């Protein structure tokens, strides 16, 4: 049976959800976190040198990276119907949006999270000065790009119920990032179509089942990303 090595409240939650949607039997191995940065325990590094989740093991195959795992599962388990194919608009939308989240959106969120953790590690008043500098940096550099991404996604969802026409991998991959921004950088007034899309995908039964199996902790997730409120003005000024 396929085994998924999972880290709760991380992006590997997307693979738990994907497996539920594809109805592929699997065993889930939960790994913990440790240290001031709450990084994965060394047990993950024993599975794959990256020491990060997700990682799947299927027979003698060990595979990391969500995008690679997604393609493997769809191909190896005969789920080709799960993504559009052929030279049609939905296929071109799929090609873009299946890459866009991890390539264009998550780097800004990861950068913001790393800088926030650095600010927290400093004593006062250095922490306040560091936060001011990082907020200034955000407003001048990554906030315009993040605002542009949100605007493009919202405009796309104004014309499409899901990112590639019908529900599929693009929606699974993007939900984590938009969920992290919900209530901080995403609200119904600024990006109404993204907000409506989030409600749709989070109401799916496979999504709810995956939350339970992946030991999802909503309160902890909200706490992890609450700092994004510091950047709301800089981002919203680029969205409106």
CATH hierarchy class name of the largest domain: Mainly Alpha
Order of helices and strands: EHEEEHEEHHHHHHHHH
Principal-axes shape call: globular
Strand order of the largest sheet: 2-1-5-6
**How much β-strand is present in the residues?**
5-15%
The total count of helices amounts to 11
CATH-defined topology of the largest domain:
Glutathione S-transferase Yfyf (Class Pi), Chain A, domain 2
Query: Please, what is the average pLDDT?
Result: 88
Distance between the termini: 48 Å
Radius of gyration: 18 Å
Number of separate domains: 2
Instruction: Tell me what the CATH architecture of the largest domain is.
Output: Up-down Bundle
Please estimate the helix content: 55-70%
Parts with pLDDT < 50 across at least 5 consecutive residues:
none
Structure classification? alpha+beta
Give the tally of β-strands.
Answer: 6
Q: What profile does the largest beta sheet have?
A: 4 strands, mixed
Entry keywords:
240 residues, alpha+beta, Glutaredoxin, Glutathione S-transferase Yfyf (Class Pi), Chain A, domain 2, four-stranded mixed sheet, 11 helices, 57% helix, globular
Describe the model:
The protein is an alpha+beta fold. It folds into 2 domains: 2-82, Glutaredoxin; 89-239, Glutathione S-transferase Yfyf (Class Pi), Chain A, domain 2. Helices cover 57% and strands 9% of the residues. The protein contains 11 helices and 6 strands. It has helices at residues 13-22, 42-45, 66-76, 89-121, 126-140, 142-157, 169-181, 192-202, 205-213, 218-225, 232-239; strands at 2-6, 26-30, 33-34, 39-40, 55-58, 61-64. Strands 2-1-5-6 form a 4-stranded mixed sheet, covered by helices on one side. Strands 3-4 form a two-stranded antiparallel ribbon. Strand 5 and strand 6 (61-64) form a beta hairpin. Helix 1 packs antiparallel against helix 7 (169-181), helix 6 crosses helix 8 and helix 7 packs across helix 8 (192-202). The chain is globular. The N and C termini lie far apart (48 Å).
């Amino acid at each position: 049976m396929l085994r998924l090595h999972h880290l709760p409240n991380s992006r590997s939650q997307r693979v738990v959800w994907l497996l539920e949607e594809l109805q592929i039997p699997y065993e889930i191995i939960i790994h913990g976190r440790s240290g001031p940065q709450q990084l994965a325990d060394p047990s993950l590094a024993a599975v794959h040198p990256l020491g990060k989740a997700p990682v799947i093991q299927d027979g003698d195959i060990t595979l990391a990276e969500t995008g690679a795992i997604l393609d493997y599962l769809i191909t190896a388990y005969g789920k080709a119907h799960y993504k559009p194919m052929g030279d049609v608009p939905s296929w071109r939308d799929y090609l873009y949006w299946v890459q866009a989240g991890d390539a264009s959106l998550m780097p800004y969120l990861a950068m913001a999270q790393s800088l926030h953790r650095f600010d927290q590690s400093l004593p006062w008043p250095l922490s306040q000065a560091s936060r001011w500098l990082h907020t200034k940096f955000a407003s001048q550099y990554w906030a315009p790009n993040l605002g542009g991404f949100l605007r493009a996604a919202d405009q796309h969802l104004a014309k499409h119920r899901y990112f590639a026409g019908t529900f599929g991998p693009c929606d699974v991959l993007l939900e984590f990032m938009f969920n992290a921004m919900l209530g901080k950088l995403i609200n119904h007034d600024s990006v109404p179509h993204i907000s409506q899309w989030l409600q749709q995908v989070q109401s799916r039964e496979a999504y709810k089942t995956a939350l339970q199996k992946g030991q999802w902790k909503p309160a902890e997730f909200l706490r992890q990303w609450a700092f994004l409120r510091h950047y709301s003005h800089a981002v919203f000024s680029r969205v409106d």
